[in-house]
Amino acid sequence: MAASSALQPWAFDVSSLMVLIGEDEERTYRLSRRSLSQCLVAVPVVGLQNYVRSYDLLLEPTSFTYFSPYGVKSAPLRNAQLSNAIKNGRLLEDQRYTVFSIPPNSESKEGRGKTNKKWELVLHLWAATTWALFGGLLVGTVLIPGMTWISIATCTVYTGWSIVLRLTEYFNVRPAPVPRNVVTNPDLPEAVFIMGRNNSALVLEGNRKDVKDWTSRGLVYSDQPLGIPSWMWQAFTRLGSLLVLLFIFSAIPNGSTVDQVGFILLNSLAQANVLVGQWLNGEYSLSKLQKVEDTRLQTRTHIYANLIRRFKDAEQRFSWIDVSGLLPKTSAWEKWSVEVVCEENKDPKTLYKEIVRSIDGSSTEETDPDATVIKGDQRIHSPAPVSKSRARIRGKIFNGPVSLQEETS
Prior knowledge:
By secondary structure, this protein is an alpha+beta fold. The protein has 2 domains: about 15-290, no CATH class; about 300-395, no CATH class. It is about 50% helix and about 10% strand. It is built from 15 helices and 8 strands. The strands form 3 sheets. A 4-stranded mixed β-sheet has the order 5-6-3-8. The protein has a two-stranded antiparallel ribbon with strand order 1-2. A two-stranded antiparallel sheet has the order 4-7. The N and C termini lie far apart (about 80 Å). The model is unreliable at about 1-10, about 360-365, about 370-390 and about 390-409 (pLDDT under 50).
């Protein structure tokens, strides 16, 4: 005869707590290159099974794609730290246009500003807070009646091994090296922009070497850290993580209810650390940059105008607008892309309406910039990247003749 529900002890599905946040959040946090302070926080990692798997994840690019008006090319963003900063800073939310500049020596101690040092202090304070909370939890495991050795063992082993994992990756996983002498004209101006889902864009400016460091350097595992082959380090962390997982899953179910509650509290702190850590990491990364502009723009036409006006010199030299596919291939947009540079003080949307009216010969309704059909307009079927009319008009706008595209590799 089964015991009544009133006499049955409480049971917790502790294993589900370890993956509550999700593996993707923990992986994003790992790839965002945690600082030393973030590695030393007294909380376990979330989703320890993440660390049992292969390190092929280092080769995966982020979900963002950038375009370079000076290099006239697009590429996936490989800097997971910048990707994390974009997401947590909501830099590509609708109607937002942001411009950042990379200051000289942004990654060096000499190049750190007051804002950067402020966020370093915040990181240290958060690490100290986690140690205070962890110490309080350990004191509770000793003083609270009903707690056994299981709670002490699992909390210390899980947290201690997590610190080992984070430190191992901190010293062994680095951005791919890009020596200065392999970058062509490293001191020339460079810029990239990332388009959001709607009317938003992010611009990053600097010299060619700095922009390359911030966009195209993916993470790699060092070949021989401390003279030990990388495969041995990876085998050590993966096997150790598996053993810790087996210990937790075998010990916690045999502990008391109070033991399981203590483990749940520790995991709750770990969940909070992932969310807080991602936000702090993003703010710390952005503090290395100088914010040049941060405005709200109502339409995508205004986004287009800001980009074209900002990189008008690159358009005159490299014709990046057609290559990027930024604008629809219509005669109205072609004329607008030229005149929007001439009349910088005129509202881009108003200018576009006037151009459409002049083409139609009569008033027409406002056209959505993303629409594929424009009344009275004609499609441009020429496969050439730049039409003769645009080149002729652009030659009148910019000083000097249109130069041939220079090598930008």
